[in-house]
Write a structure and sequence with these properties.
With about 100 residues, the protein is α+β, with helices and mostly antiparallel strands. It is about 20% helix and about 15% strand. The protein has a domain of about 60 residues: Alpha-Beta Plaits (2-Layer Sandwich), CATH 3.30.70. The longest helix is centred in the first third of the chain and has 6 residues. The mean pLDDT is about 85. The structure holds iron/sulfur cluster (SF4) (2 copies).
Length: about 100
């Protein structure tokens, strides 16, 4: 065996290593739009803890800040959000969005 560091156990790749291989081709228009006004009446803030990329941030005035640029397009926020109309989703334009590399 060669190379620095211990071999990953069980062939699994650490999340951070996996993230280093992810490329984001940022589209000009956000594919997820969050309606901050709807979020003000939300009590769960489920998106904040559910998003694996930590893209939702509560603001001190009760709103939500959302940054679409490093989104994995996993759909979790859309599924956990229980406020109608808070999240509008459309897939990124062709050639944009997240790119997962294998190998
Ligand atoms: S996006 Fe949905 S879950 Fe997140 S704060 Fe807004 S209403 Fe709540
Ligand atoms: S689709 Fe996934 S990564 Fe993107 S904002 Fe929603 S939960 Fe976060």
């Amino acid at each position: 065996m060669s190379g620095p560091g211990p071999a990953p156990a069980g062939g699994e790749i650490a999340f951070e290593d996996r993230m280093a291989t992810v490329e984001f081709r940022v589209a000009a228009h956000p594919h997820i739009v969050v309606d901050g006004e709807v979020c003000r009446s939300c009590t769960t803030r489920a998106c904040v803890t559910a998003c694996p990329a930590n893209l939702f941030a509560p603001t001190s005035d009760g709103g939500i800040l959302f940054n679409y640029e490093q989104c994995f397009e996993c759909g979790t926020c859309y599924m956990v959000c229980n406020e109608a109309g808070a999240i509008a989703w459309s897939y990124p334009e062709g050639g944009h969005g997240v790119v997962f590399r294998h190998g």
